[in-house]
Design a protein that fits this description.
Blueprint (H helix, E strand, L loop, with lengths): L26 H23 L2 H8 L3 H8 L2 H23 L5 H18 L1 H8 L11 H23 L6 H22 L4 H16 L9 H5 L1
Helix pairs in contact: 1-2, 1-4, 1-6, 2-3, 3-4, 4-5, 4-6, 4-7, 5-6, 5-8, 5-9, 7-8, 8-9
Amino acid sequence: MTDGSGDRRRAVPAAATKPASRVRMSAAQRREQLISIGRQIFAEKGFDATSIEEVASRAKVSKPVVYEHFGGKEGLYAVVVDREVRALLDRITTALTAGHPRELLEQAALALLTYIEEETSGFRVLVRESPLMSATGNFSSVMNDVGHQVEHILGAEFSSRGYDPKLAELYSQALVGMVALTGRWWLEVRKPRKETVAAHLVNLAWNGLSHLEAKPGLITRRRG
């Protein structure tokens, strides 16, 4: 393209002269975005090292927007943890479909390991204990809820084998604690594969349970 003087000028596309339009999020969309970003930062840094400034910066909004939705860091954290608690419990509850107690143990172990594998950030949030959370909002309380579900399974099994069903709660907490702590270890190493980890956990739990002593005692006490 030339003008009257013969100079050649480069044509500028019309689209390039317009500023890029910014898609405006609805309040619900913005809330979900902030929850997602908060979840990631809490997983990376923990509660204490997370700031509203960083959440706002990553979301490309001002700090008042975050305060408007959650009231502060504590409110955002509570929403993130509550969602993860429900997500994990839903996974485990949905997985428990078998009829045989050993299969139920396998399903529970696999459900937890699958959650760790697929929702790593969420699991990291749960295992980072926060002094601000109540007894109903941390990893220990989640595992306690899972333990109550396992307790019902063991209670029926204990009764059928002539063991004291009142001890089912103790054993369920021991089993769930074993799986949970192994899951925290596996979160970092990621080997062997989750199916192998679940199989070994159940192997230890089930073969131990199948040879329980009716009234166990401590060997060291017997010697005394």
